[in-house]
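Hi team, as promised in this morning's meeting, here are the two structures we talked about. I've kept the exact order from the run log so nobody has to guess. The first one is mostly here for context; it's the second one we should focus on when we meet again. Sequence first, then the predicted structure tokens.
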Amino acid sequence: MNLFENSRKKKLTEEIRKLEAEKALLAKENQELKATVDSIEQSRNNYLNFFQKNISGVYRTSLDGQLLDCNDAFIKMLAYENIDELKGIVNTKLYQNKELRLQLIQKLETEQTLVNVEIDLIQKDGSIIHCIENLVGIFDEDSQLHQIQGYLLNRTEERKTLNKLSESEQRYRQMFESNQAIKLIIDPESGKIIEANNAALKFYGYSKKLITSMFISEINQASDEEIQEEMARAKEENRNHFYFKHKTSTNEIRNVEVYSGPIYLNNQPLLYSIIHDISNRSQIEQALQESDERYEELVKMLPEAVFETDSHLNITFVNERTLEMTNYTTDDVKLGLNGINLIAPEDRTKALRFFSDRSNGIDKGPTEYQAVKKDGTPFRIVINASSIFKDDVFCGLRGIIIDVTERKLNEAKRIESEEKYRSLYTSANDAIFLMQDGIFKSCNPKTLEIYQCKKSEILEHSPAEFSPEFQPCGNLSSELSKEKISLAINGEPQFFEWVHLHKNGTPFNAEVSLNRLVLRNGVYVQAIVREITTRKKNEEKIKRFSTILEDSLNEIYLFEPDTLFFKQANHAAQINLGYTNDELLKMCALDIKPLFTPTSFNELIMPLINGSKNKIVFETLHRRKDQTEYEVEVHLQYFKYQHESLFAAIALDISERKSAEKNLKEHQSHLEELVKERTSKIENQYKELQRYNGIFEGREFRIKELRDKVKELEDRLKKN
């Protein structure tokens, strides 16, 4: 009996040990399963951190040009409705240069990747867009190229902007340099000549370098005091035209008429002067005074309006040009026409003051007025009149009237154009310089900032000196720069990316635009250089993040806060829901969330709008196009970008996770029931064992008593 009970006790103990080991194993498996689920969650959350808007067009084609796949940016870039519409078009038909694609395929077979390829593509409506393309060859197991993947950036607007800027700068410069009118720009404080156009160089006979080192006092024959007085008055805009005698480089004295006005360049006040050589006109005026017989004939031939008045300003004579200019007739003059009636009311006080000065022999030169024609039409005139005296008695005025309306408009336009040109050139945020024979000849301040050098360190140097020995394409910088410059000189504008060097040798990325510019002293190449080092880094980040987000298995949405209409949805969202991108853009967030009403959803998002929360995570159902539903976990955030507010939602399909959690819960419940059942059995068996132990212990005690009594009896017998 003892052997049987001991054996049974050992079996029960072993079974208890096995059950406890099984329970520990199940607990470990449960812990590992939870760790796996947490790892999956962490992985998905890592993908969410890369969310950013995709701006590049990504596509994949076969070698024969059949489109295999593309993202929404590629479809929108080419102005098509959807991918199915594009798949019906052979990729080669999208290239404006049909042979270019074959050339690129040949390069890919050897180089495997091509970077920054400039191409022109044809949109659906036939419009041409200019793009920068990166290509990656996809090779099969036999190392044969069988597919092409491309990444596109639309640079059409940037190219248009650069072309317009170049044209505008060339136009403004040529308008100043090539205009036949003599023009000077003068510092009103010092009298130094800042700038002179080609007409001024020709008239005065000086080189540009020499004349811009001179002061106006070296040309103007008036005294310094008179010049300073006139310049001060011009600066205050009291008067903007004068008569002076100017000396040329050959010491010839020329009578000139100077129209000056204040301009501001880089916040510096300057005088913008237009000079007319009136030496010949003065001779004509003198000839008219000397010959009464020729006077009338010459007056009729003159293009200017000529007039005479009596001492009360009544007009006594006008030529045909005066009548044409004012719309009055000869009969109007005969019936009596006072000269003050030709002056606009606002300038009549000024005119009467001029008349009073003339009557007293005071000559202040030509004066500008606002005049009115017979029908009331206003126009600008300059009156240059002299006093008529007989026996020292003032008898009237004799003079000419110049219609300067068009000239004033043209002057204003010229000044504005020149100011725009110089402002664009000096304040441009890009480096702008001129090259001749491959050498830097002039540059703007931004050039010195970008290249981190002094003006003397860049002028009369070549682009190759500010470039590494080789460009990223593998070509020598010196040879490639000569090639680009040669093409630009031959009339082919160039736009390309280039690696330059700062003066200290540090490289930086740049976009370069080269254009041919014809000036009086030769053919130049105008270069515009924009540093794009930061942008290149950002573009690489955008390309990397965009690819990750577009290929993400999670649904990503952007929708408006007011209407809840979708603005964007990634490929995973379209696949999971079964809608096309165009269909989703016509829907709102509530259309795919059957558990929400407008009121309940508004209550959900209100903490994001009022700023009390930065992020909301919730679980709900999404309804597909086929009306089936699936569980999702939504991470919702509210963003304000510039003038636009948007919700960004990332939805994780948690159907599998929910199913796993359910199975895990059921498994745990089953284990708990199993453990409970085994524990109950063990407890019953343990009680039975205790009962047997009690029986055994009682028998052993009884046997001991009997043995003690036997021994006691044996001891008694021995004594007896």
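And here is the second protein, the one for discussion:
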Amino acid sequence: MKNSFGAMLLVFLLTMGISSGFGQWVQTSGPEGGWLRSLAVNNGKIYAGTMAGVFVSTNNGLNWSDKSNGLPNLCQVRCIGFDSSRVFIGTGSETFQSTNEGDSWFKSDSGLKHGVTDFKKVGPRIFASTGTDGIYCSDDHGMYWNHLDSAILTNIASIAVIDSNIFAGGLGGVVRSTNNGVSWTQVNNGLNNMLMASTLVAFDKNIIVGGSNGVFFSTNYGESWILTGTGLPATPARNMVVHDNHLYASFSDWTGGGVYRLSNFGGSWDPKTNEVYNRFVNALLSVGSKLFMGTYNGGGVYVSTDSGENWSSTNSGMVNTLVSSLAVSGNTIFSGVNDYRFGTGLYRSTNNGTSWIPSNHGIAHNSINVIAALDSIVIAGTDGGAFISRNLGASWDTVDVTWFNRNFQAISLLGSNIFLGGIFQGVLLSMDGGKNWNPVNSGLTNLNILSLDGNDSTLIAGTDAGAYVSTNMGSSWNKIASGLPNGYVNAIVHNDSFFFAGVQGSPWNGVYRSVDNGLNWIEIVNGLQNKDVKSLFASNNQLFAGTFAGVYVSINNGTSWTKVTSGRTDEVITDIVAFQNNLFIGVQSYGVWRRPLSEMITGLANDRALTPKQYFVEQNYPNPFNPSTKISYSLPSNSNIRIIVFNVLGQQIEELVNQQQSVGRHETVWNAGVGSGVYYYRIEATDINNPQRRFSETKKMLLLR
């Protein structure tokens, strides 16, 4: 259990039926930030390429608007280029173009065999470098690209232009063309055997290259190179820019990453991002008096107006965050962001997601994995420990545990007992409000805990290889062996007399249900098109499943599922909560979204109609068929079901189903691996609660090859 349910007012609404329409999911205003790969400016507009599309600012970075219409979901924008008012982006595998400054996009990679790493316009021609196939050019505004066979290098990261000289840097150093790309020559004299030239920038008549062994400059069009200065990290520079007569270089690294400034060639580079605590800087951009940096750990865009001495975030409207967990307590909803940023990992909203404010005072590590809330107590589990707040997130204290690993992934609040689960450490228990902790791992042979939930008598822990059950509040554990597979059990929730488990990893992926406190489980995936389950949320007899491709809802405890997301909400759903008549979901790379529960409700009659009065087997469809057909049937009670296929001689061909199934409508598919002919399918059912009640029926079907 990740979250307090805290939404009992929804019980009446949720006892009604489901609307299968996708309705209106609305992206909330945060949490703001992003994972940036590139920054560029054209015609007064700043473009930010993120790991999930393009954002544009028309007011010098004060506000951002999502401009990803026509781009695929999770489109990682690695580079941005311009041809007058045309905008080009490279995603690593595809190239797109916009003719209306980002309002819409279309594919523009005819002739290109690989993803683009940089664009440069030289006269009427546009050059595009690739990471595996050298350089291409286009003479018709990107409608078709021609490969330049003479470019020498294949893995090229950057292009720069001075006068009639075109430079390209990549694996093997720097090459130059003086005839508009017709031919190229290597210009590596003085680069000290540079293995990789990762970034190029032109400044006046100087060409500057950053690579695997430092940053160098040339005053003679690359004929010779000189080291710019000392004091840089050992890793290659990601980007460079000239701003206010200073040279800036960015680096992306845990230890030496950030932005460095050089005032004079031959001097020392000075680090200029100490106050931001940001070590993953992919992009730099100079616009007037402002210097921008784009970060790749969730921090988004930062701006400096004093040549890099001080920085402030400028992410209004940019929602490109990796939301990991949601929780509700009272009138507050909490959102955890699993970014490698410092100081901005946990947020809260008191106005239904209209605005989010940082809520991390006292949290020393802000890569948030899980949040749980009960009354005024909120607990956050991170990659670097757990933290507890007793005032709805206004301040936080460190959970004092002396333990081998402090990577916490799961939390369960059961009355006065608080359980923490983590990687390599099993389960910890506090019985005094989080002041003292003790391990409770007897019988736990797998200490990688991904999920926890329980009721008054039972506690279940999901791991990366199955789950364990405890009937004595963690004093001892037993491995669940009946019905629940050894996949990644990402989610455990309970609802009335049911426990549910969400499992990731083929062939075990799906949702599983137990009616006997975790001893036995059955798979419940009817209608679940994506079975890799990341999150679960339950209330009354309603169950929501967050998968790797959207949200599904069941109003009959998992017997059947209906999809309720589309578009951008069809991504990895990291967590789900209900709050103030809305369903909130965390969508990987797209922040927090909400949708009124009433949009997913049609009427109580639909719910009642889902309970069959008797056993019933439908004719297979299609019939005749080739090569597969669907067999549907309805069960009036929980039953042991067996479905077999046999030929006209009575010989069994295949057993399709042999398991316990719950009341409701079910489907199975026969993928025929035999030749054309007449075949039969027979269903045999026995009522679990009344073994004397039995049912059997046989139907004919025709396979035409």
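Starting points for discussion:
Helices lie at 11-14, 604-608.
The chain has two helices and 63 strands.
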